[in-house]
Amino acid sequence: MASQPGTKCREFADVDPNGFETEDQVAEYFRTLVERNNLRVRTGVTVTRVTEREHARGYLVETDHSTVEADYVVSATGPFQTPNIPAIVPESSGITQIHSNSYKNPAQLDESAVLVVGAGSSGVQIAAEIQKSGKKVYLAVGPHDRPPRAYRNRDFCWWLGALGKWDLAAPPVGADHVTIAVSGAEGGHTVDFRNLAASGITLLGRANSFVDGKLQIGSDLGANIARGDDNYLSLLREADEYIERNGLDLPPEPEAHELGPDPECVSDPILELDFAEVGVSTVIWATGFGVDYSWLQVEGVLDERGYPVQQRGVTPVPGMYFLGLPWLSRRGSSFIWGVWHDAKYLADQIEIQRKYRDYEPDHNALLEAAVR
């Protein structure tokens, strides 16, 4: 979103406040931020290892260009580091498998049918684009939230702010990591899996295993669609209540509450997909990312799973911090327009620790106080 009320982000120039910035516009935003604040930023540099300095405070940050000594290190690499491809279809199957981060367009695929696994934003947009190119598409749909792209003349991101959801301090139970099905393609629209099915995409439940060339599919498709519908309708109801409570003059959208009947692929779901029989030769895994902190070789910073040990970005190891992680302090912590809360907090914590470190008592004042 080009503009978010209540944030400290500079609005993007020459972009509709309810529109989407291009890749180049986002890059220009950061260039302007660096120049305006005279920040020392080095691009094209890969950090290969961070270790504690021997017999001295601080850290050695080794890169592919040089080694930097630092008293404080903030890891702001975010949560999307390593493509996650579940070990379901073996490499020996002969099936082409790629992660969504490697997908560019339908032209890179052969003419065979395609299975897209994952019902988040990437999965649904990739599946729709491939379907429009004329290829047969199967889409495996897991549990997800399905917010409206816009409702009653306000964007979904505006509604998250107005309803206080950006600043939730903790995720709802079971929602610390939720797949969000919403599309920004062609100007943005609300995702309805019924429409995807009507376009010719065959919906499937969760991909569970692969045996003798056949994908074994969960029977959870109907439940997953229903959960997404409940999430969608609940936000519409909250929005309606907000509009009435605040006396806003926003056009009603009764049709947004109307859901069509479930398509046949939902009411009578496929539980086994024979790849050879239906002609699937490519699987695109839109299954998210994991983290890789193998370069961060400081004891006590990571847990046994390799995830940060931190409280609001502050680790138990002096001088080590994390920024940009989901739910670091609130829902918006991993977004451009929400990270400022945690950035300010960490900057304050570092400054506090600096003052403690550099503190030197005024001995004369202490002596005078003792005499008195």
UniProtKB/TrEMBL annotation:
InterPro entries, per the entry: Auxin_biosynth/cation_transpt, FAD/NAD-bd_sf
Record's keyword annotation contains Ribonucleoprotein: no
Pfam families: Pyr_redox_3
Gene Ontology molecular function, alphabetical: flavin adenine dinucleotide binding; monooxygenase activity
Keywords in alphabetical order: Oxidoreductase
UniProt-recorded name of the protein: Putative flavoprotein involved in K+ transport
Organism placement in taxonomy: Bacteria, Bacillati, Actinomycetota, Actinomycetes, Micrococcales
